[in-house]
Design brief:
Blueprint: H1 10-27, E1 52-61, E2 69-81, E3 84-94, E4 100-111, E5 121-132, H2 154-157, E6 161-175, E7 178-189, E8 195-206, E9 223-235, E10 246-256, E11 260-269, E12 277-287, H3 290-299
Antiparallel strand pairs: 1-2, 1-12, 2-3, 3-4, 4-5, 5-6, 6-7, 7-8, 8-9, 9-10, 10-11, 11-12
């Protein structure tokens, strides 16, 4: 696909974003977020079969010597089976001093081979990416990714296109009130580039596990806190920590009524190649038993 197909005027982009926001707000009454409020790390939680979760993950940052930007990945996550969750991401970004554009899409599948809860729960993750070099969602950090990659002008970076495969081994444990998750990442451009490696680890827990006698919004059991760390581990040409980016990021998730979740995470770079700071905001809605809803409507037609 040619790069110019990703460009859309800023005003039109904002109008579409506003319409999408209103649509999601309308779905909130029938929408629930089960997953931990990680942005880069994955736990062993999968979407319930038949449920559809709509989520946005937004990254806000400013590379050194470049313009600030905002990049959003809009995610549609569907529970195909109890052991299989499938997702579609559509990515876009805006750099106010530059331009606004769509940057591509991702197709992701996660498979859980062991359905019973174990001390360590493995999940296999496979993703295909068709994105341009202007993608700044930073949903993973691998190889020698750095802030210099995010500082290019959109007119230049959008001309680069990547067809990539990403694989993760997800190991996740629930220990008392804590979730501990470790991700080992391998990513490969389907051309002739080397394999790139990275990691993401996270820990979360609810502020309070005992449920209140009555339903509440502003109470401790609705809040989940934790942190994640992620970064690159070099590639097959240079398996090293030199010139790699690494981040630590506290996070908080707030479960709202109507099957809605809001998440926030300020991330801090700890190496010279990293962004100084990256702020992430997530909003998720879950629509329960979407497949049954459509089957019911079809059955009602005579």
């Amino acid at each position: 696909m040619e790069a110019h197909l990703y460009r859309i005027p800023l005003a039109r982009f904002l109008r579409r974003a506003a319409c999408a926001g209103l649509l999601l707000a309308g779905l909130a009454a029938c929408a629930a977020a089960q997953e931990k409020p990680y942005f880069v790390t994955y736990s062993h939680d999968l979407e319930e079969p038949g449920n559809l979760e709509i989520e946005t993950k937004t990254a806000l940052a400013r590379p050194q010597g470049a313009d600030r930007f905002g990049a959003t990945a809009t995610e549609l996550e569907y529970g195909v089976k109890a052991w299989w969750t499938s997702e579609l991401y559509v990515d876009g970004q805006t750099t106010p001093a530059d331009s606004t554009l769509l940057t591509g899409f991702r197709l992701e599948n996660r498979f859980r081979p062991l359905m019973r809860e174990h001390w360590i729960n493995p999940v296999l993750y496979v993703e295909y990416e068709n994105i341009s070099g202007a993608d700044k969602t930073a949903l993973e950090v691998v190889g020698h990714d750095g802030q210099a990659d995010l500082a290019e002008r959109n007119s230049e970076s959008r001309r680069e296109h990547a067809h990539e495969g990403e694989f993760r081994l997800i190991l996740s444990s629930n220990l008392r009130d804590w979730n501990l998750s470790e991700n080992f990442i391998a990513e490969k451009n389907l051309g002739h580039d080397p394999w790139e490696f990275g990691y993401a680890v996270g820990a979360t827990r609810p502020l309070k596990t005992a449920l209140s006698v009555r339903e509440c919004t502003f109470c401790a059991e609705k809040l989940t806190v934790g942190a994640e760390a992620y970064g690159g581990l070099g590639d097959t040409w240079a398996l090293t920590l030199r010139d790699t980016s690494h981040y630590v990021a506290p996070l908080v998730g707030w479960d709202l009524p109507g099957r809605m979740r809001v998440s926030f995470s300020p991330g801090f770079g700890v190496t010279g190649s990293s962004l100084d700071r990256v702020y992430r905001v997530g909003v998720a809605y879950e629509m329960p038993q979407l497949g049954a809803l459509f089957r019911g409507q079809k059955g009602g037609v005579r």
